[in-house]
Design a protein that fits this description.
heterodimer; A: 10 helices; globular; B: MetI-like fold; two-stranded antiparallel ribbon; 12 helices; 2 strands; 73% helix; 1% strand
Chain lengths: 259, 325
């Protein structure tokens, strides 16, 4: 299953629920497919559970012992929450880019990108060099930083830092890339760069992106999922959901009835 | 210039923005802050003035390098005490760093909350024990125990099998350099733990999550994200612990044996700058003796200030937020 057919189901959740306490649901019974080599956008008002859902897809909730997760999240048919599955391995296959750029500030640009590769034991300089160049090129950052790979990751601008984080996530060649509002702290020019990057990247990797910005969802995604108070209201091809949504709540949200 | 300053300069503000309370508050805080600075400077100047007879008699450098301290024959040198202070402090720091960092990492990253709380309270308690009490315990229990259980057997073994070690070790006495260093290490551990714990606690959750999201194990997160980010605070904490070790007086004076002449041996008596001061200030009736104690105090002052300045320089130089954290 390492080379799935374009558009086939790469990930799928079945009745996935995340609880922060006995009765406090982050998300409840979410079942949806994620198609291979497509961009899936998760939209909805603040607190609707879209980020909670995203973080459940690479077991980031494991870091908080108060969180309880039920249901299944399948990657290529295999439940990532199955008892024999190691969360560390899951996260190597399902990468993540966060809201705020999070380069390791003391590491150089090169070492930032190579960090994930070194974690899996790759030490050969030649292999690392090639992977770093490829990832930085993939993240549309290579030309800007190729002459200063040794300078610290913190020395880049915000937009460059976010593309560095994308390169860092791409370097390990993940199967799925999760992006949690990756442009919310960037200026408009950097936002457009990251958006066009997302469109290019879907040939290599399946992308799930949380966004507050409905125009962004329209611009970058193939599928859009609308979340509301912890529930998945509907998931459809992006054109359908913005053109003729099935659900009344989706229609109201998209027309600005609530935000 | 008043005109150029524009309409929002203080003098042109409408009266309702210029309360007398603001002026009074400003006067109070400015004078209090200046008083603190003046106090520190005045103290340094006074100590220097009192130490001048010594500097005049021996010179700044010769006083620093003279290895004999003999008040009876009016020979005064600071080297034994400076050497003793630096040796005990750096050795104690070397002994304290690894365990202290281990505890700090354990309580911030691994321990469940209830256990972390217990450890934190205990560490803080250890810091709160008066050093004279630690000294008292060490004088009657720890020092004799260490001599009988460790130093004597090691010394006897060295006499038999490694004679070259004997001049370094020296004949074990009850109160000696090694015991004072061990107790000093014990006393600075709480500081190193507390300061590095705070530095590690300030690493943003985003940094940890970024490392986890790359597929790092817990240890890899600590190695790649947490420790590099916290390094400034940890190093500054280590230097502040060193400054504390340099100045620690009571327990060291009780345990080090107070020998005023070089060379020192590991198991033999030695002295530090604070221990010299505390032991001799009452007997200093000769002008030169008195001023030499002041001169030692002056050097101690300089060394401690130097370490503190170095700590803040490193903090600024390495800081990720350029002076913020």
């Amino acid at each position: 299953m390492s080379n799935p057919v374009n558009g086939s189901v790469r990930m799928e959740t079945k009745d996935l629920s995340v609880r922060y306490g006995p009765a406090i649901y982050g998300i409840q019974n979410v079942s949806m497919p994620v198609h291979a080599n497509k961009v899936t956008a998760l939209i909805g008002p603040s607190g609707c559970g879209k980020s909670t859902f995203l973080r459940a897809l690479n077991r980031m909730h494991d870091l908080n012992s108060d969180v309880e997760i039920t249901g299944q999240a399948l990657l290529d048919g295999e439940d990532i929450y199955a008892p024999q599955v190691d969360a560390v391995v899951v996260r190597r296959k399902i990468g993540m880019v966060f809201q705020k750029p999070t380069p390791f500030p003391t590491k150089s640009i090169y070492d930032n990108v190579a960090a994930g590769l070194r974690l899996v034991g790759i030490r050969k300089k030649q292999v690392l060099d090639e992977a770093v160049e490829k990832a930085l090129t993939g993240a549309a950052l290579w030309d800007e930083v190729k002459d200063r790979l040794k300078s610290p990751g913190g020395s880049l601008s915000g937009g460059q830092q976010q593309r560095l984080c994308i390169a860092r996530a791409l370097a390990v060649e993940p199967e799925v890339l999760l992006m949690d509002e990756p442009t919310s702290s960037l200026d408009p020019a950097s936002t457009l760069r990251v958006e066009s990057l997302i469109k290019q990247l879907k040939d290599q990797v399946t992308i799930i992106i949380v966004t507050h910005n409905m125009q962004q969802a329209q611009r970058v995604s193939d599928y859009t999922a609308f979340f509301f108070v912890g529930e998945l209201v509907e998931v459809s091809p992006t054109g359908t959901i913005f053109g003729s949504p099935r659900e009344e709540r989706t229609k109201e949200y998209l027309s600005g009835a609530f935000s | 210039m008043a005109d150029v300053a524009g309409t929002i300069s203080a003098s042109t503000l409408p009266a309702r923005y210029r309360g007398p309370a603001d002026t009074a508050f400003k006067v109070v805080v400015v004078s209090l802050s200046s008083f603190i600075i003046l106090l520190a400077v005045a103290m340094a100047v006074m100590i220097w003035l009192e130490a001048r007879p010594t500097f005049r008699a021996f010179g700044y450098l010769d006083f620093l390098t003279e290895t004999t301290w003999d008040p009876v024959n009016a020979i005064h040198g600071a080297l034994p005490f400076i050497f003793g202070t630096l040796l005990t402090s750096f050795l104690a720091l070397a002994l304290a760093i690894v365990p202290a960092l281990g505890v700090a990492i354990f309580v911030t990253e691994f321990a469940p909350k209830w256990l972390a709380n217990i450890i934190n309270y205990t560490v803080d308690l250890l810091a709160a024990i008066p050093s004279v009490v630690i000294g008292l315990w060490a004088v009657f229990n720890f020092a004799p125990f260490m001599r009988d259980t460790f130093y004597m057997p090691i010394y006897l073994w060295a006499e038999e099998s490694a004679p070259w070690l004997v001049p370094l070790l020296g004949a074990p006495s009850t109160y000696n350099l090694a015991t004072a260093t061990l107790i000093l290490a014990l006393m600075i551990v709480p500081y190193t733990v507390a300061l590095s714990r705070d530095a590690i606690g300030q690493v943003p959750i985003e940094q940890r999550e970024a490392a986890y999201a790359l597929g790092s194990t817990r240890w890899e997160v600590i190695r790649d994200a947490v420790l590099p980010y916290a390094r400034t605070g940890v190093i500054a904490g280590i230097l502040l612990s060193l400054a504390r070790a340099l100045g620690e007086t009571m327990a060291v004076a009780m345990l080090i044996g107070n020998r005023n002449r070089m060379p020192f041996t590991l198991f033999g008596p030695a002295a530090t700058m604070p221990s010299l001061i505390i032991n001799e200030f009452r007997e200093a009736v000769e002008v030169l003796h008195y001023s030499s104690i002041m001169a030692v105090g002056f050097y101690l002052f300089v060394v401690t200030i130097g370490i503190n300045l170095l700590a803040s320089y490193i903090q600024r130089k390495l800081s990720i937020t350029k002076g913020g954290v």
